[in-house]
Each structure stands twice: as structure tokens, then as C-alpha cells.
Amino acid sequence: MITRVLNNSVDENTGYYNLLKLDMNLGLEIVYAYSNISFTEKQKEDPMKLYDMLNASKVLNLIIGLVPDGEFYYLNKTTHEMANNIVSYRNSAMGIMEAISADYSNLDLDATDIQKKLNDPDNMALLKDVLTKLG
Length: 135
What we know:
Blueprint: H1 2-7, H2 19-34, H3 41-45, H4 47-56, H5 59-66, H6 69-91, H7 93-105, H8 111-119, H9 121-134
Helix pairs in contact: 2-4, 2-5
């Protein structure tokens, strides 16, 4: 449950957790896990709309109110702690090195392939032009 909340709460633009999405997704996951309410796939396609509907109708608060206090506290605390730990790791030296390594592993650094590309007259002309402009 917590993993789904974390995976669904990452901001697409920044790669960091959106705290509003974190709370929204936790609320939805609690409804899915602690109630027998069925939702269609179409309803689940727009989690913000589904959350707003459940919140406006007070169903969300009713279901969360039925979850034992200690259990809700644990889910909420653990979700936020894990999000903070992941962000801390990503910002650590090791996390930054891992991200750089992943970026460079996607590059094609095969020497034979590079040599073939440099033998192409169009690529060589472009390279010379760029180097000339750089000084």
C-alpha cells in the first residue's frame, strides 16, 4: 500500500514527492483497502476527481475514521518518513552519483560506433562548425 502511494505521488516535472498527492493517494489507498466500495477503472483513471468526490461526500472521512487510530497514524507516519528518506538519499552524494551513473549508462560510448559517425562527412562538418564557433 505504502509503495503504491509513494509511486503515485511523484511530481512528473520535478521528480520529487508532491505532499498533496501523497496525502490524496494515501486516502484513496485506505478507501481501497478498508472498504468494500468498488470503483471502475475509468473512475480510477482520474484519482484527483475520485478523491474530491469521496471527500465532498464525506465518505473519505467516514472510512478513515473507522481505521484504528494507531494504524492510521502508522500508515501516515511511515509514508511520510519513507518519502523523506528517499528524497534525502537522492540528494546525498551516493544518490547523486547513482543518478549520474544511470545517465551515463544510457549514452552510447562504443568506440567503433563513434568512429563510424565521425567518418560521416555531414557529422564531421557539423563538428568542425561547432568547434570553430566555440573558439
